[in-house]
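Loading example: each entry is read as two labelled lines plus one structure line.
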Amino acid sequence: MPRVLFLPFQVEEEVFPDETIIDVAMRLGIHINASCGGLGTCNKCKVIVESGEVKGERIEEIYYKACTLKPIADVVIRIPVESRYDRRALIRKNRAQALERVEKIPLNPPIKKLYLELTSPTIEDNTPDLERLFFALKEKGYEEVRIPPELLRGLPYILRKGDFKITLTLFNEGLSKGVIITDIEAGDTRENNLGVAIDLGTTTLQLELIDLNSGRVLAHTSDYNPQLSFGEDVISRIEFARKKEGLRLLSERVRERLFILMEELVKEADRKLEEINVVSLAGNTVMTHLFLELEPKFLREHPYVPVAKNYPVFFAKELSIPLKENVPFLFAPSVASYVGGDITAGVLASMMAKEPYLTLFIDLGTNGEIVVGNQDFLMCAACSAGPAFEGGGIKHGMRATSGAIESVSIDPLDYEPMIITIGKKRAKGLCGSGIISLLASLMRTGLIDRMGKYRRDLKHPRLRRGEEGYEYVLVYKDDSATGQDIVFTENDIENLIRAKGAMFAGYQILLESVGLSLSDLERVFLAGTFGSFIDLEDAITIGLLPDLPRDRFYFLGNTSLQGAKKVLLSVEKREELYRIAQMMTHVELSNHPRYMDYYMAALFLPHTQEELFPSIKIRS
Amino acid sequence: MPRVLFLPFQVEEEVFPDETIIDVAMRLGIHINASCGGLGTCNKCKVIVESGEVKGERIEEIYYKACTLKPIADVVIRIPVESRYDRRALIRKNRAQALERVEKIPLNPPIKKLYLELTSPTIEDNTPDLERLFFALKEKGYEEVRIPPELLRGLPYILRKGDFKITLTLFNEGLSKGVIITDIEAGDTRENNLGVAIDLGTTTLQLELIDLNSGRVLAHTSDYNPQLSFGEDVISRIEFARKKEGLRLLSERVRERLFILMEELVKEADRKLEEINVVSLAGNTVMTHLFLELEPKFLREHPYVPVAKNYPVFFAKELSIPLKENVPFLFAPSVASYVGGDITAGVLASMMAKEPYLTLFIDLGTNGEIVVGNQDFLMCAACSAGPAFEGGGIKHGMRATSGAIESVSIDPLDYEPMIITIGKKRAKGLCGSGIISLLASLMRTGLIDRMGKYRRDLKHPRLRRGEEGYEYVLVYKDDSATGQDIVFTENDIENLIRAKGAMFAGYQILLESVGLSLSDLERVFLAGTFGSFIDLEDAITIGLLPDLPRDRFYFLGNTSLQGAKKVLLSVEKREELYRIAQMMTHVELSNHPRYMDYYMAALFLPHTQEELFPSIKIRS
């Protein structure tokens, strides 16, 4: 990979494939004014190529547009910052390191295929078909076997079609030693045995098709949760479920969509729908309730009681999903109303419950769930952080899709912003990472004080009093995709402070409840897409993450999906998942006597107690 | 009860309520000419009342019609037999004694109702509904509990409706220690717990509604099996099932009819359909297959393999029967293709497998099944007797309904018949008991020889050559309900001889297979309606039953229904039923090396070996 040396900063860095100079600059915390998001229309991001071979668009003869500029070999780039150069702006961006946890799992899937060569009946041995089958199963050690009606009805035909050589699909429900026959096929079909792992997210559905014979992922797909059209977050879905037929509708929609996605999966892998023998799902408590058509309203009403946390196995026919009728659906167990199967599966995937290191696991999606612990204990809580970090409750917030501002830098001298959008499109709004990035930049430049209020004394065209009070104009309407100014209001900031305060107070309460504190944390695991896009420095700067050595932070990716997959690979993993759920002590934060104190103290940027954030130096 | 003394025979007998003098005479074997079946139209049954008080119709001043005559107090009746009197006609009719086997069964039904007062959730204990329930069940000793989807979905509402006081209906499937929750009701509903016992007959459906709290029968109903319109016997039903949608149609029809009958039952008992918590069925192998929609054709095809003999439990929803969705249906296990659950349930009801007495159990319905054994062993077989004893394959045979000739006597001197019909209606045809009675009478009067051929040398208007060879006219068309002569052909007799020969050879093979013979039999149990109507003397005379002391014969009634009922009363009885089925060794008669010899030897009246029927004296 080519390298770039930025002057006058004397900072050198590798350039990853597809990165432009503006991407690298943003990564390094080098400010270059830019308001078009990287699209190439604002003509502000002028840089000088001092040496090296480049591709890109020229401007005003001597400059290149940084947002189009790609080095072919090593280059030296000078940023024309002139006298305004301020070293303080150079805050190196820092993603958490990826932690690919490869666990060696001996394959022992919950679904077994068993090939049997039965003896054909004769007049001397005209044992009935079912008893002939059961006898052979007994010889293989299966004593208690159940057969569903449809399969019993089909048994005589399959047996004779396969000349009494058949392959059974067996499922151990895990309740007893007994097994259920979930499919019977003529001949030897052992090589076809697929499972589907599903992350049942409030916003996104993620699916993987797994070959249960090899453990390999054959295909992956994802889509929005179709319930989004009935409500963005779990609360609004619960409300929608109160309507007549509301619950049924929510449930049917997501089941239908998942079936379509499963069809896509098998098509992509060139396999057949009939080869799917098991589905493993992990979702939060509300999503799992809605999927199963279990009444969710009591989750919201005092005293917040789920219908179930250890969900029984459901079969495809019981869910009206047109897979083979007896395909079992396994659900990751919940711990509480707002600590669900996505978290238990996440903890399973993270392996934190098998290791001695004190770990803080954070899943900041539509809700914020946290777990603190290690092999000896697990404490968990749901933080009422709300969807602010997904753009919810933020005036120009939006989901992380094309046109969303994902990264922001503000020049500390002239307060002009540099933005990068997803897909390098005209900006439509701010997604989570952009919001955090912006808030951190506002702090660093001193545009806001520690309570999150804009400096009233500063005269700057981007700082103004809007309809909802003071705001900073990030993108003027001429540069935006919406034809409107994209602004960031004090209301937005207040919402963010509340959200990050709730998270931070949560970490503290969980740690305190076991007599520990933040500095004892040996690792911080960031789960979900949020974890992979967030900038560590920014998140710590605003007080969303604790101020710990950066090498203790890891992002784990979609741990919910990873956990759901592990359940498919091994019955021991499913048992471990249940042990984890059992082990997780839930702390009801809203109910905790000291929660309010911690929360109030966290309603500062980064925090009332500055000593908790020693590495964060901000203007004030 | 008044008594009647018949002169000149000097035979005295009690008169049962509703009996007329002709009924008593028939019972005693005293012949009175009568061809109207008891309707009072033929004016032939003239008797003289010598003393006593009577009600009835006079005829020719000094006579009464015997068919209308009822004694009010003791009477003396003279039969005007004059010189034609022949003592040999006096064959006292003899029903087998009823054996009401009252077994004390400590109530332990397969369905239990359990009342639970759960604690209401609080913010300190917001355990989910399902786990709250399971915890309470664990305290009661139920460790492995399954809950069906519908009940889980309804759980939060029921719990709150009943203020967390609920009644569970629990079913132990018998496969493991686990139980299934089959219903959940708000409040204490323990007093409502009903079961339905069903005899799933080829011809008739018999149902009883049982209160599982007391074991009492609350209602009884019966109807023809609606499958009759698709075929009279099991073979023709199997053939019908081969047609497109044939099996589904047969299955649906009987399930629909049974549901209607269950509605009748609860209505009669003033109970609710929702109180039914379990259904126990006993039927032959073909009927059970058809009910469950299991392919029956292999039962008929060499090597005669049922789909199953130990049928899994099916739930109402799996059978599309609109009871509560999770009501379990329990099926008495079969032993072989033609020894079904009606027989295993029958043996259970008879208690023969718990006693030391060597017993022959005979169920002569549409098929003929026999069991020989006691507490130490059980041998069973299906005799291909066909439906002759139900009127099938007999020219004027019919089922035992109104107008069927159920009893016949023939005057040994003038060969004139005396007949009694069911309901005292004009004769339509002959039912089973009438057929046996007629054949025995023909033997006693010497109208047929021991090969079942009419005496060619005898000139009598009732003996004639018809379209199908020689025949005896039992009812002239003027007296019949059909406007046609009712005749009994040599073909009919041949069919009957084959049928009774098949039965008799069956008894002998089963006994021989355990080194015993007919004379070792300590008891003969007659099951089914046939057993209750058959005349012992007649049945022994024709060689259908072995010639044993008459006090060894018992009729047991509908043992299939009784067995189905016992299963409802106690799980131990269900276990005993399975032990019985396991213990029953099936002998394939058609395959037995000595069967043909025994069968050929039995194609005589009563038998080739006269010494087997020492008490039977017939003219020849």
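The first helix of chain B runs from residue 21 to 28.
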